[in-house]
Structures are given as structure tokens and as C-alpha cells.
Specification:
The chain is globular and about 40 Å long. By secondary structure, the protein is an alpha+beta fold. Helix content is 27%, strand content 38%. The two termini are 25 Å apart.
Length: 165
């Protein structure tokens, strides 16, 4: 399964989504930009996508809720270690109230992996942030912030609200 992302204005991305009603697409926005996701076994219809391969998948993505992306830039040597740790990261996310779906995404270009989690609402995600599972998850994700990664950056979190229309 492949996963593609593209950014643009909300209205522009909404038109792309409307033109392809049979595709699995998710339009979301935050205070900084709008983002359109495309999950497919085929190539994407986006002209300038950020391509990923889905390594692990939990649940079904829906056009509602809040999407949280943990972006983890890693050096080439750490990629196998991060992928090995995905199973442990999965156990820290699974079965939390309000969690709808998770995608562990391997970059097909670049060095930034993404753990995308979809929550029913902000409260569900905030509740998870107050658990021991979240503390362990955050420690695991930030363990890749070491001096060797200075050239590619540190892990960070981005939140988006999914447009239900």
C-alpha cells in the first residue's frame, strides 16, 4: 500500500478530492496549511506528491477527527532500527479509547518517517498524552534525536483537523 501527501490551499485541494470520488483521500487543515492524503495500491493522481510506503496499518482512515503526525527524520543507518521498533510503538498506541487508525509510513524519498494516528477528537488524543503509553512512545520516538541526526533535523509533531465536507 502506498501513501501520498500534497499541500496547497484548502479550496484547491478540495477540488482535487471532488474530482476523484472513488479514491481514498483525506483533506485536512491546521493553522498553517491544508494537506491532502491519498492512500492507494496504485500511483497517485497528485502532480507533486510526497510518497510513502505503508509499513504497518491499524484501523480504517475516516474523513473525521484529528490527525496527528509524528515525523521522525533518521539517518540511513538508523532506518532498520526504527522499523524494528515499529512493533513496540504499535503496542503503545493500540487499544486507546478514541484511536481510529494508525499508519506507519516509510519515505520513498528523503529521510523522514511518519507515524500518522487518527483520533475521534482532540480530547481522545489529549487523554492519550496523559498516559504512561504516551510517555514511552515519546521517549522511543525522540531517541532518534542524536548528534548524528543534526543535519536532517529532530522529530516533531503536527496536528491537522479533518474536513468532513
Amino acid at each position: 500500500m502506498n501513501f501520498y501527501m500534497t499541500t496547497g490551499t484548502f479550496n484547491f485541494l478540495a477540488k482535487i478530492k471532488e474530482k476523484h470520488p472513488g479514491e481514498s483521500m483525506f483533506l485536512m487543515l491546521n493553522n498553517e496549511n491544508a494537506l491532502l492524503l491519498h492512500e492507494s495500491n496504485q500511483s497517485t493522481i497528485f502532480k507533486t506528491p510526497r510518497p510513502f510506503q505503508v509499513i504497518e496499518s491499524i484501523g480504517t482512515l475516516e474523513n473525521k477527527g484529528i490527525a496527528v503526525m509524528h515525523t521522525i527524520p533518521v539517518i540511513e543507518e538508523d532506518k532498520p532500527l526504527l522499523e524494528h521498533r515499529f512493533h513496540h510503538l504499535r503496542t503503545l498506541l493500540e487499544n486507546h479509547r478514541g484511536l481510529s487508525a494508525v499508519r506507519f509510513l516509510r519515505p520513498l524519498k528523503g529521510d523522514a518517517y511518519i507515524i500518522l494516528s487518527l483520533w475521534q477528537n482532540e480530547k481522545s488524543y489529549a487523554d492519550w498524552e496523559n498516559t504512561a503509553s504516551y510517555t514511552a512512545f515519546k521517549k522511543e520516538v525522540t531517541s532518534f534525536n542524536n548528534p548524528a541526526n543534526l543535519l536532517i533535523g529532530s522529530a516533531y509533531v503536527t496536528k491537522y483537523f479533518i474536513s468532513e465536507d
